[in-house]
Design goal:
There is one protein chain. This protein is α/β, with parallel strands linked by helices. Among the domains are: 142 residues, Rossmann fold (3-Layer(aba) Sandwich), CATH 3.40.50; 99 residues, GMP Synthetase, Chain A, domain 3. The chain is built from 17 helices and 26 strands. The strands form 6 sheets. A 9-stranded mixed sheet has the order 2-1-11-10-12-13-14-15-16, sandwiched between helices. The longest helix is centred in the N-terminal third of the chain and has 17 residues. The radius of gyration is 23 Å and the shape is globular.
Length: 520
Amino acid sequence: MPVAARFNIASYFVDRHLIEGAGDRTALIHDDTTTSYAELAALVNRAGNLLHDLGVRRGDRVLLVLSDSLEFVACWYGAQKIGAVTAEAYTFLPAKDYAHFLSYTEADVIIVDTVALAAVRQACGLGRTPKHLLVLGYDDNELLAGQGANELSLTAALAQSSDQLTPAPTTVDDVAIWKFTTGSTGAPKACVHTAGTPLASYQTYAKSVLGIRPDDRVIAVPKLFFGYARDLVALYPFAVGGAGIVFAERSTPELLFELIARHRATILVNVPTMMSAMLASPAITDADLGSLRLCTSAGEALPAELLRAWQQRVGVDVIDGVGSSEAYHIYLSQRSGEATPGDVGTPVPGYRARVVGDDGAELPPGEVGVLEISGPTVAQGYHRDPAKSARTFRGDTVHTGDLFSVDERGHYHHHGRSDDLLKVGGIWVAPSEIEHCLIGHPDVVECGVVGHSEVGLVRPRAYVVLRAGATTTEAELIDYARERLAGHKRPRDVRFVTELPRTSNGKLDRRALTAFEEQR
């Protein structure tokens, strides 16, 4: 059996720049200041030494529950440098969800900030208690006044650690990264990835598709706990000596406009919901987006009308893509300058895609089936779930559960999730098709569609968020859909809401919307 190639994620993406004489290049832009690769490398070493001193060893999990910050990035790479396995959770979850993460990861060290500290403390009382909580934002005196002896000030502990650290002799096949599923169909599950996976993802997607450059400055709408954002802000740019822009605040159109202009961002990592909100914001009139060279979109399907509106109003190239935690990152993508409204492009170099029927046979162009994707970044499986792993993973292939068709040009079209379909009048209907239609209306910012029972029959119901000041009526939206959709697909009624429920990754939480419908 061949010996796996030696590879350490922190050595490649951070330390390499010092060796190549580029340590003074900017790695991160944050809090109106910058951190060079040399400064980041020193902090990474301090974080790695701290974790090792607390008993973390190769293969141990480290759970980060941090807002976006320099410390998030340094601790993530610090754990990687000593051969630990990183896992992340959102900072605005209830205690019961953190209890799941504490038990599931079995991490002895949790790195948390003040935003999530109270809920994490409560979670410790609900189940497994880690040996150490490293807290960002409190000093030792504040912690001693607040809670137990297992809490340490992250800032103080980092200051006392050495900034010299030899990387662990990890290989491309060592487990290094857990990427969690969104939890939209149950408790989040960890997809287990090796150290070589982010390098392969950079080479196939960021380099080959995005053409990421040393002068790029990348800013993201989602937060760093979401792998889509972390990779594009604090991993892929580091491969070429570029910079990431991080901010702790909640993403809003107005804040994004300000930060893009102030820091001259070149790549905006976006999601369709925020694209719609940015277009609807009055602040877009005066927004300076001239530094942007491209925008990525992922996380959920990008409606064709939204893409057209973005191209017309903003004029910045959009590269829409489809990916998953199971395959690490993006595997289907449009290409720069070639975005076609209504499809998601073609497979990323190095990946193979098939649309299959119930019997597993590949379907001809135009027919809708389940997408299977094969490539170099497919996870080893779900942690401690062999049954689910066997249904989803087959060697280097993922059975995604997403419905797609491929056209004669070889471009792929998304038709929703197989488990989201509604049977209306005996015909299967994808809620996403109705949502994409209604989002095309100039007054609609967001839309979610679920089925509701009407005299024992399933009918589509749309929940809609209108732009501020809009006066569009339910009847007008139903008529709008009737003109564009087959009769059985149009929503039978529309409910106006101020916001839609979303998962921590920003995707429409259809399960929560369905539960709301069932309670009515």
